[in-house]
Amino acid sequence: MASITLTPMRRRDIPEVMRIEHLCFSDPWEQAAFERETTNSFSRSLLARDATGQLLGYTIYWIAGPEYHVLNVATDPAARRTGVARRMMDHVLNEARREHADFVALEVRTGNVAAKKLYVDLGFRIIGTRRHYYRDGEDAEVMQLRMGT
Ligand SMILES: CC(C)(COP(=O)(O)OP(=O)(O)OC[C@H]1O[C@@H](n2cnc3c(N)ncnc32)[C@H](O)[C@@H]1OP(=O)(O)O)[C@@H](O)C(=O)NCCC(=O)NCCS
Fold this sequence. Notes:
It contains 4 helices and 7 strands. The structure holds coenzyme A.
């Protein structure tokens, strides 16, 4: 999708972000969690908007020493399979390369076929499992993309 713009999340964006968060996740983040991400020095975020300003998706990630850690990637169900998540993740990976990160990592639900396909397409590999990582008991797979590989 050519006309997507990417900007950091500001406090005033949080209601729009939370609308999508609630459409996307069974155990959504609360407002306070998003607010913290707008002030954490190690947190970065991207909001993807179309040419009309409509929010299509967002991602939040942390920079922890040599690691970029992706906490959250979500696309409005009405905008899926149009390249929104790929566009945001490409931005994160390019930034990580530019900033000389060693690797980018994330957790994903074992059963999240769509997200795992996205990450594998981008070059991530499964490097481990965190048992019962999610509140409902589902395991997480830890995926990692080493920079320069
Ligand atoms: C996973 C998610 C972020 C993908 O967002 P998206 O904007 O629709 O993804 P894109 O259009 O950029 O797709 C990029 C690639 O990911 C893969 N993919 C995306 N959705 C897929 C699906 N439903 N089934 C299989 N592969 C899928 C494909 O490889 C796709 O490339 P293609 O369309 O050329 O085949 C979205 O489905 C979502 O918000 N899900 C709910 C929240 C979530 O699970 N987030 C991840 C938490 S770790």
